[in-house]
TrEMBL record:
Oligomeric form and interacting partners: Interacts with heterotrimeric G(i) proteins. Interacts with ARRB1 and ARRB2. Interacts with MLANA.
One term of GO molecular function: L-DOPA binding
GO process terms (BP): melanosome organization; regulation of calcium-mediated signaling
Function: Receptor for tyrosine, L-DOPA and dopamine. After binding to L-DOPA, stimulates Ca(2+) influx into the cytoplasm, increases secretion of the neurotrophic factor SERPINF1 and relocalizes beta arrestin at the plasma membrane; this ligand-dependent signaling occurs through a G(q)-mediated pathway in melanocytic cells. Its activity is mediated by G proteins which activate the phosphoinositide signaling pathway. Also plays a role as an intracellular G protein-coupled receptor involved in melanosome biogenesis, organization and transport.
Gene3D superfamilies: Rhodopsin 7-helix transmembrane proteins (1.20.1070.10)
Organism ancestry: Eukaryota, Metazoa, Chordata, Craniata, Vertebrata
This protein's encoding gene: Gpr143
Localization per Swiss-Prot or TrEMBL: Apical cell membrane; Lysosome membrane; Melanosome membrane
Name listed for the protein in its UniProt record: G-protein coupled receptor 143
Organism: Eolophus roseicapilla
Protein family according to the UniProt entry: Belongs to the G-protein coupled receptor OA family.
Family matches, as PANTHER family: G-PROTEIN COUPLED RECEPTOR 143
Length: 392
């Protein structure tokens, strides 16, 4: 799981709330993390592998949206590997882990492992949050025809730059003046928690707004493509809206427990004694959400692939081959053009207008196809109703 408490635990002078959750059934918690991460890792890889029976026609260059979806899955896979490694060391070498919180310990490696593994997990999941935000931005820009593969470089710079900058800044402030003598009190840890949860809250607040605007723009494109809004167009718009809803639903399910847990622990930290009897229910709620985090955080990778692509099946084709993307049939379609110059100027103007209209329709179809990527039935209906498919 991904929590700023992992970094806080590396300080020898830990706060009482961090000690409460980190010392509660540590073996059971690590086992839960290993099990959840392993299942998510295997199912995510299974989802991404090519399946038997898929089209083998040559695949053109992928869109920026499909690249972003793949990068989100990669971040989740690497984050799950980090959780498995950290939890395995925690279970396999209890003596090694016990030296983490020892002041003036003889070995620096326990602290190095503690900080390194926590930063690895936090950095990758934070990058996944930023990539998910970029996906919402890119979906809106694609429909507005303001994005493309060229923007993926900007997304890389923003995602990895912000993820690394916020992670380093939060860790630096947390371990000031040094790892062996972290400052006491809640104030010095607050910037670390802010830099950790900022991208998460950004996705929770901004992504639904961008998705809603994208759905509205898609509806306008569907209406303007042929001047009518048929049942197929209405159904396609609904499926795109459902796809965005599934993405946000998975995100809320996997990370709402983190927000609840952190709120409860902050409340406990502000109390003079967290072991008081009136706080028993709050302590129990914090420990329950802590275990839930260990289950749901790693499962994000697999659940996201279900939201992105649906269930792709068990029949894996280990023989590598290029797969057709949904809009290939539209992007490869060509509109017949007169190769002979017309002697009459107004005929040339009519011909150019038809070319522009066909190109505009093709761009519209491709943009809408990218929104519904992974849904075969939607792509088929879109292709059949496409003016290009009909030879317009």
């Amino acid at each position: 799981m991904a929590s700023p408490r992992l970094e806080t635990y590396c300080c020898p002078n830990q706060d009482a709330a961090t000690q409460l959750v980190m010392s509660f059934q540590a073996e059971v918690f690590c086992g839960v993390c290993i099990g959840s991460s392993s299942i998510s890792l295997l199912l995510t890889v299974l989802q991404l592998l090519p399946k038997k029976g898929q089209s083998t026609r040559k695949m053109p260059k992928a869109s920026s949206s499909s690249t972003i979806l793949l990068l989100i899955s990669i971040c989740d896979i690497l984050g799950s590997l980090g959780i498995i490694f950290r939890s395995s060391v925690w279970l396999g070498f209890p003596g090694f882990i016990a030296n983490i919180s020892v002041v003036n310990g003889t070995s620096v490696w326990p602290s190095v492992f503690c900080v390194g593994s926590a930063m690895w997990i936090q950095l990758l999941y934070s990058a996944g949050f930023w990539w998910l935000f970029c996906y919402a931005v890119d979906s809106y820009l694609v429909v507005r025809r303001s994005a493309g593969l060229s923007t993926i470089v900007l997304y890389h710079m923003m995602t990895w730059g912000l993820a690394v900058m916020l992670c380093v800044e939060g860790i630096t402030l947390l371990y000031y003046p040094s790892l062996s003598s972290c400052e006491n009190g809640l104030e010095h840890a607050i910037p670390h928690y802010i830099t950790t949860y900022a991208p998460l809250l950004l996705v929770l607040v901004v992504n639904p707004i961008l998705f809603r605007r994208t759905v509205s723009a898609v509806a306008s494109l569907l209406k303007g493509r042929q001047g009518i809004y048929t049942e197929n167009e209405r159904r396609l718009g609904t499926e795109i809206q459902i796809r965005f809803f599934k993405i946000m639903l998975v995100f809320v399910i996997c990370w709402s427990s983190n927000i609840i847990n952190e709120s409860l622990l902050f409340y406990l930290e502000m109390q003079p004694d967290i072991n008081e009897t009136p706080l028993k229910n709050i302590r129990s709620a914090a420990l329950i959400t802590w275990i839930i985090m260990g289950v749901l955080n790693p499962m994000q990778g697999f659940l996201f692939t279900l939201a992105f692509y649906g269930w792709t099946g068990w029949r894996v084709d280990l023989k590598w081959r290029k797969r057709e993307i949904p809009w290939e049939s539209m992007s490869s379609s060509t509109v017949g053009e007169n190769t002979y110059p017309s002697p009459v100027n107004y005929q040339n103007n009519i011909h150019d207008s038809k070319k522009i209209a066909a190109t505009d329709s093709q761009q519209t179809d491709e943009a809408i196809s990218m929104m519904s990527e992974g849904n075969t039935s939607s792509d088929d209906r879109l292709t059949r109703s496409s003016p290009i498919y009909q030879g317009w």
